[in-house]
Amino acid sequence: MTTRRDILIGTGAIAAASTLPAPTVLGQAKPRVVVIGGGAGGATAAKYIAKDSEKKIAVTLIEENPNYQTCFHSNLFLGGFRDYKSILHDYAKLQGHGVDVARARAQVIDRDKKQVVLADGRRIAYDRVVVSPGIDLKYDSVPGWGKEHEERMPHAWKPGAQTRLLKRRLDAVPNGGVIVMIAPPNPFRCPPGPYERISMFAHVLKRTGKTKSKIFIIDPKETFSKQALFQEGWDKHYKGMIEWLGPKVHDGVKSVDPKTGTVVTGFETYKNCALVNVIPAQMAGAIARDSGLANQTGYCPILPESMKSTLDANIFVLGDATIAGDMPKSAFSANSQAKVAAMTIRGELIGARTFPARYANTCWSLIETDDTVKVGGAYEAKDGKITASSTFISKTGETADLRKQTQAENMGWYAGIVEDMFG
Amino acid sequence: MRDGKKIATAFAALLAFLALGTGIGVSSTFRGDRALGEYLAAECVTCHQKSGKVVGGVPAIVGWPEDQFIAVMHAYQKGERENPIMRTMAGQFKEDELLALAAYFGSLKAQR
Which of A64, A100, A120, A399 could bond A60 through an S-S bridge, CB–CB 3.0 to 4.6 Å? Predict the structure, then answer.
């Protein structure tokens, strides 16, 4: 059984940022859960395990950033609908729930020794791990583009500095300037995200009178999430400003030149672009892959009734890093999955009641002021995967009133989920 | 002389009527499984905050009388209410699950 002394093994000094909880009785061990990643999956899992376990489980959350900028609603920040502070959150209240928040980078999971290895060499022993690391970008997936070019041609598909950079670049696009988005192939984080972002690009240009500007989307996909709804909205609000090109038309991105802002496709070449937003192919965050939890797709297979890794019974994987059947890669999904994992872990470690897994997701996309559409569903473990039991999607031709209501819902959800994660 | 048997029968019938759940003075412990409700509510609380705080177009659902909670969920199940998210959410619940949710949310107090 692990004791407080052998929980941290290694260099000896315990970093000031991490305070380990004292066991209630000296020498009596509590089971320990280590959560890697403080986003929609990890923060929710840590909170739900800690708050519902009557202090019988020690929970440590390892997160390298001091605060969390939500990717969700970052498009609204780009569009000028939210300010940056409103999408930034901290971990103070999580500590109040009894979560030991350790500001560190987790390097790899030593599954044989059941220890999480931090980047500085310290090790944390665990009974269970929840790993919710988000995605990493495949920097080699767009010819001519790489990590060294992500300032000139930002992705902003991971939050923080990239988000703020993209906002500055968007606001600097001149009238008549060309924006090219290279959209990602499936499977990727946030299926409607690129198209909501395009809508926000157009909104900013229109609002600032830069209506001579043009936006091109070079898409490797034949279809995209809520396509009919976005195209209806673009036609209604941004006529002539947005052109979406599918793979049969553009025949693939042949090369990009970040120095000159050029994008070459099989169909045409875009020179001196004011902004090129490259959203490359993606895979599970490094720690999941480096710990042997991903398969050849680069994402992590899980058991649908619990979110356990199929490769390790002591490890749960959440969110964008997973292969989650019918569930899309979204914050709502990660938050939903976290609760199933938390319930399973409490059942295993302290005999808490468990129930059959159920999941939900809704994705809202803002197209223009008070014009929002949504898609989503309810899900369960069935046929060996997470299967949708019911789905819904907005319809074209809905009234302005309904779309406005949908946007109000969107704002209500954001307030609710960040309260659920961090409050 | 009063007919004791008739009175006793009438009283028993009254008790049975109340126990079947007219919603008047019936304790929630006779109805929904609150712990099950708390688990099922995990799907709800990202939008409907447990504190009862209202933001945007999402109403507070804490402290609702259980019968009224169930009536609204039935209305979504039957398509009498419009919102497609709620139709999907309500549509997945069996009756005992609705009772559980009603018990859970009914037991919460709105916080200031």
Answer: A100
Question: Residue A312's beta-bridge partner residues?
Answer: A309
Report yes or no: B65 at the A interface, CB cutoff 8 Å: no
A338 → chain B, closest CA residue: B42
* pLDDT tens sequence across A219-273: 999 999 999 999 999 999 999 999 999 999 999 999 999 999 999 999 999 999 9
The correct CATH number of A12-136+283-355 out of 3.50.50.60, 3.40.50.10090, 3.90.230.10, 2.40.37.10 is 3.50.50.60
C-alpha–C-alpha distance, residues A101 and A36, integer Å: 10
Q: What ipTM was predicted for this assembly?
A: 0.84
**What range defines the domain where residue B84 resides?**
32-107
Check which CATH number belongs to the domain holding B55 and give it.
Answer: 1.10.760.10
Residue B83 in any domain: the answer is yes
| Residue at B27 is within a domain | no
Which of B35, B42, B55 shows the shortest C-beta gap to A415? B55
Residue B6: helix, strand or coil by DSSP? helix
Question: Which residues from A are below 8 Å from B88, CB to CB?
Answer: 376-378, 390-392
Taking one residue from A and the other from B, the number of pairs with CB-CB distance under 8 angstroms is 88
- CA of B47 to nearest chain A CA: how many angstroms apart? 4
**Which residue shows structure tokens 């099989």?**
A266
The pLDDT score that the predictor gives to residue A322 is: 98
Q: Does A70 touch chain B (CB under 8 A)?
A: no
Residues B7, A29: Cα–Cα separation, whole Å: 62
